[in-house]
Amino acid sequence: MMVLAHLITGFVGQALAASPSALPGLQLSVGGATGPEQTAVVLKILALLTVVALAPSLLIMMTSFVRVVIVLSFLRQAIGTQVLPPNQMIVGLSLFLTAFIMAPVWTNVHKEALAPYLENKISQTDAIAYAEAKMRSFMFKQTRDKDLGLFVKLAHLDNPKKRADVPTYLLIPAFMISELKTAFQIGFMIYLPFLIIDMVVASVLMAMGMMMLPPVVISLPFKLILFVLVDGWQLIVGSLVKSFG
Question: Left if phi > 0, otherwise alpha if psi is -120 to 50, otherwise beta: which for 84?
Answer without folding.
Answer: beta
